[in-house]
Amino acid sequence: MLERRLPICDEPGCSNIRAQEDEVWKRQQSCCANSSTKGELFKMPQYVALLGSINVGGNRLKMDELKAALEDDGFEKVATVVASGNVLFEHAKAADAALEQRIARIVKDRFDIDSFAAVRSKAELQSAIEDNPFGRDGEAKFVHTIFLDGPLDKAAFEHFAKAYDGPERLAAGDREFYVDFKEGVARSKLDPAMKKARVVKTRATARNLRSLQRMLDKMD
Question: Which residues form the domain of 98?
Fold first, then answer.
């Protein structure tokens, strides 16, 4: 039998969310009860949440406290990877955006940190690595995928990339873009240049390929 944990929530509309979760739970139990293979359990989808603004700029958050907060709210098999706000978890199938909003609310309510979460499935995380064109010849610690909390304006991004004269290599994705900080991140002037040009109008959080591969390796 699966162990059940329900989030505690008194916000308006939560009763509807809880009713939906009840129905999902019934289906999970039925799946387990009717399994033809002894010990076979319903397997919920696994996701990774990449939180922005964690342990930078004074926003200090211990990963064990973040893990506990998500578990208290009903997330299953929660694990963190390094200390920069990378969380693996299992959850009944849901839209990335719904999970992103829920995790951001938890972080704000529990820790008073205004963050956002880029949520990706295992397949989406793998694509974020494989679709990065600079992973083939760049150093993994310098090649980054920058995850956005909305779609990338490709036309604006590509216009900026053509005019930008810095050493970084740039490429557009859908909900992300790719950068090779081939001369290092610390001295890069890309971020202020992009902010000045207002190229990206959504929030963003970056991870290098080394970190992303480490997360992918830990996913089932």
Answer: 43-121
Cα separation, 73 vs 69, whole angstroms: 6
The length of the chain in residues reads: 220
pLDDT digits (tens, 9 = 90+) for 82-128: 988 999 999 998 888 999 999 999 999 999 999 999 999 999 999 99
In a domain, 158, yes or no: yes
**Alpha-carbon distance values, 39 to 2, 43, 77, 145 (Å):** 11, 12, 18, 39
pTM over 0.85: no
> For the chain, what percentages of helix, strand and coil (3-state, to nearest 5) are there?
40, 20, 40
Rounded CA separation 158/172 (Å):
7
- How many domains are contained in the chain? 2
Is residue 203, in this structure, part of any structural domain at all? yes
Structural contact between residues 21 and 102, judged by C-beta atoms closer than 8 angstroms: no
